[in-house]
Amino acid sequence: MLRLVLDRPQRLNALTAPMLDALCDRVEEAEADAAVRAVVLTGAGRAFCAGADLQADSGNTADGRAAGPVAGREATLQAAHRAVVALRRLRKPVVAGVNGPAVGVGVALTLACDLVVADESAYFLLAFRDVGLMPDGGLTALLPAVVGRTRALEMSLLGERVPAATAQEWGMVTRVAEAGRFDEVLYTVARRVAEGPTMAHGFTKRAVDDAIRGLLAEAMEREIDSVGVLTGTADHAEGVAAFRERRPPVFRGA
């Protein structure tokens, strides 16, 4: 069993493009390693993942030049898409251990996994609206496939926390662990799948995912195009400024 940890606890494991690229590398290594029969993905500290890091450096373009904020966000989004696809394509079971809040792209990572164990204190949140953006990371396909259109829009448009117990009722979570039993429940589930027929699990994943495979690719292309437009809006600039200044945003619809 391979344990992968989003390890940036000082930022609640907020994601950057290099973090996501490293995750892809580890997933590829797991695919090639016959000794790995299952993968656990969890977060360090008190959060699973706070989503994309709005305060991170913009990063670099492919030729090594400094990227602007829009290019930096696009690089993170593309890296998130690669990570989601890598988790989905892995022919071995992946168990998400949601030890705390899962926000934004962090929700996409949980939905890219095959089984989800959440601590009872955990919650799921799409906060894209608060910075004038739309869900990305493949969420526009993954989320409605799991919870349906109405609940997907509820999470996206209202931006309210979904507690672990509710997420389980909606089909986002496999098991909810009581306080103090998170590791026990997580690794009981992980060992169960690791001890199973790995090849059969891989064929099962592929068969189940085939129905959404094309939709996910189309959704990711649409997300990149749409986010490219939205990052240039006044509402997005206001959302980011409000986030950094710790105040409610005032959107103008432009």
TrEMBL record:
Gene3D superfamilies in the cross-refs: 2-enoyl-CoA Hydratase, Chain A, domain 1, Lyase 2-enoyl-coa Hydratase, Chain A, domain 2
GO molecular function annotations of the record: catalytic activity
Taxonomy, superkingdom: Bacteria
Family to which the UniProt record says this protein belongs: Belongs to the enoyl-CoA hydratase/isomerase family.
Name of this chain's protein: Enoyl-CoA hydratase
Native organism taxonomy: Bacteria, Bacillati, Actinomycetota, Actinomycetes, Pseudonocardiales
Gene name of the record: echA10
